[in-house]
Design a protein that fits this description.
Layout (H helix, E strand, L loop, with lengths): L5 H29 L4 H7 L5 H13 L8 H19 L15 H32 L1
Helix pairs in contact: 1-2, 1-3, 1-4, 1-5, 3-4, 4-5
């Protein structure tokens, strides 16, 4: 079974956490650009909102005019993103590090496969959300 080296694992893991943080921040900006009123004040008011809360608020606002900027399937993924982020931040290492000879284990190989899939999907979402934020800022 072919797995990532541990160095590769740590890089992809770190990038997943980065993507999640930036996506969350960008969604708050997108909401602020869509919302009527002062953009900076609106953005400031969102500081304590969780990712799940901001996705729900943004979806409601985005769909309010019947012409959403973000697709329904993308909102579905964004809602699931909280679960993914929590897994990668709080659980993933425990799923293989306690296994004997973990670097060669099926547990590690399985987690590496999941890591690569989630990394690639989150990278695409990160790029899409970033483009939307830049477009809306104009």
């Amino acid at each position: 079974m072919n797995s990532l080296s541990y160095e590769q694992y740590k890089i992809l893991h770190s990038e997943i956490v980065m993507y999640c943080q930036i996506i969350e921040g960008d969604l708050k900006w997108i909401y602020s650009f869509m919302h009527t009123g002062n953009v900076d004040e609106t953005r400031e008011s969102l500081n304590k909102h969780t990712l799940g809360q901001i996705v729900r608020k943004l979806k409601e606002l985005d769909n309010s005019d019947g012409n959403p900027s973000i697709s329904s399937s993308d909102y579905n993924f964004l809602s699931q993103m909280t679960e993914k982020r929590n897994y990668w931040c709080h659980q993933c290492y425990r799923d293989f590090l306690y296994t004997d000879n973990w670097i060669y284990s099926q547990d590690y190989a399985r987690i590496c496969s999941k890591l690569e899939r989630d990394h690639d999907k989150l990278k695409n979402v990160f790029e899409t959300v970033e483009k939307l934020k830049i477009k809306m800022k104009r």
